[in-house]
Here is the input.
Amino acid sequence: MTENEGAPKDMNYVGAPVRAVGLGRFLTGNGRYIDDLKLPGMVYLHLLRTPYAHAKIRSINFAPALEYPGILGVWTGQDIASDIRPIRPVLDSTNYQGTEWPALAREKVRYVGEAVAAIVAESRYLAEDAAEMIMVDYTALPALSEVSASLNSNGVRLHEEIEKNIFFEYRFETANFHQAFQQAELRVALEFKHPRCAGSAIENRGVVAQYEPGRQFLTLWSSTQVPDLLRGVLGECLQFPVHRIRVIVPDVGGGFGVKMHVYPEELLAAFLAWKLGRPVKWIEDRRENLLASTHARDHETEAEVAARRDGTILGIRVRDLSDVGAYSAFPITCALETLTFANSVPGPYRVENLSFHGMAIGTNKCPVGAYRGVGFVLGPLVMEGLIDALARSLRMDPAEVRRRNLIGTVPHRYQAPTGIVYDGGEYRKAFEQALELAGYYEWRKRQTELRVEGRYLGIGLATFIEPTGMGQRVFRHRGMAEVPGFDSATVRMDPGGTVRAYVSTPSQGQGQETTFAQILADELGVKSEDVIISLGDTETCPFGTGTFASRSLVSGGSALALAAREMRKKLLCGAGQVLRIPPADLEIRQGKVWVKGKLDSVLSLEELTRAIHSGLYNTSSDNLIVSRSFSVGGSAVSYGTHVVVVEVDHETGLVLLRQYAVVEDCGTVINPAVVDGQIRGGIAQGLGTAIFEEVRYDSNGQLLTASLMDYLIPGSLEIPVIRIEHLTTRSPFTPTGGKGVGESGTIASPAAIACAISDALSPFDATFTRLPIHPTTIVEVLQGKCPSPAANRVDVEGK
Here is the structure.
């Protein structure tokens, strides 16, 4: 029997916009976040952070701080060198050079904001005041603030053991690539720039640590996305027994990938709670968040498309430099952006020939890590930009060029030249439906009419794929051996018929309690309000990878569905023994056991579970607990098309989003409200990347965007009305048929918006492939102050 067989037929909850579980407590301010946690005897951790991007530490004088009232102690990197091992992520690749990220800098600092001293006090205010009394003597070193400077550093090394500051390098080329380029009738090349950006969750990072001497037990409350991985690193770096560590994830106000890493602050809080015997709290403020929480993206890319004159793409060549900052982040390492970018280039297009060369370069900046969409955002940015440039060169409609190169209908699976296997789907249908939903051809007509009036509309198209819920096979292929790649769920039936489930994928606020309850309710034939979901506690939940890369439904939800189906079998078996009726003649619906074909129920689940738990019937189902793990074979691949219409004021550079339409296929939709919310939120973040957000440093490695006054994110007035429609192609890789959707909105939206702005200003021969596209950038390009990165067209001789 396959994984999809045996599912109940009377599905009432899956596919319904069920109201979010626990919504009331959040709306009334009763959510319980890290900073809400107060423990007896709690003290507060503050970190002194360096103002230098690159410098040697000659000495640290903290004696004056110890005289400050309420100070329990000050620790430096040298003080804890033998107590806290550095974080060292591992990648199984000969082209990777790892880095050690110490909890506190020792001989050298490598980016502005790196912690050099830890202060613990009776209050946060006292700790911050005492930090100002600490004197650090630095010897400044040359700052490597750009990848070009880092590659040509004249012997200046970020880490002494890493030559040329190249942390990771990846090359990939299909067998017939050069032949395809030789056959081309036309080649078009462009340069792209994706800015460095920050996750900017509404809640910053935080941690509370408590040590119980009597039990010799360490408990850590953290806003992490990976409690089991964090637990393992705590054990390794603190040299503390892992089985005596508990990690609890309370309510989390957004993570977006930034909170999936293990950070020095978590190690410090745990260590200091252990040594001081008092609970220690550290809460990140917004300045620290922008300084020291991992950044993302930061790519400089050269790309070229080879094609025929009818618009058929023959091959793509990409060369990419990724600025990954000072350290490699645990657990996904600095290779994440480069590898995901390489895999995302073809997208849903028939690109049979591909050449990719990417390098992850170390610089004196905050380390780069995961952020919603990771390198998959770069694929559409490059592909859609190249296709639009190709269309302009051929004087073809951009939609027609895409139409000629899309995969089309895939009955079961399609393997891209990167090796990724896509789920079955109707890729071209999604594209055509998106054009219709947006009124594409009506807008094209309107565009021509408005240009006569001096108004400039642009239509941007972006198709995408989102590989979700990556399993063990993917992470092992990437060499990321420290990522388990599977998730787990335990389902328990209490006497009285209540269903309890424990899942290894904690929530970041995206509604797992609701969607998981819907899955269980349908699988077990109960009401969703009779289901209790527990997440984010290593003591009660089974071991798993955690929540990132759109894996909660694909990995955690699949494990949950499998456990529920096994529980359903147990219940039917028990009912058969209690009633002396063959289990095959029974079914469970609406919280009751029914004899098939009969109109009356014979037993409620409340009665059945009490009977089984009583042990009076000597059933084989007396243990109503089932645990299952799941790892998808590769990835469950969502896909779709975004169409955006913008109007650009050519005098001020202001961009107004007039319309946004999305057609998406994420397989079985568990909760439409949750799915659409994910898409809209992702588009909002993609919009920020496209025209607002950029983490900027100066030539000395000084952060210039250390507040939300400088690092601009979109607000409610900038977000357009977004129309969403769905196709539904069940994934053959998951028991529910569902695919992840958490990053889809962010993956396609920057490309769609960039293409729309370029399309609007095409009468000025302006092309925008460098994000963010600020109003000042648009004005400077149109006034000739800043050259537009126009496409370099090459007509191949004799063709």
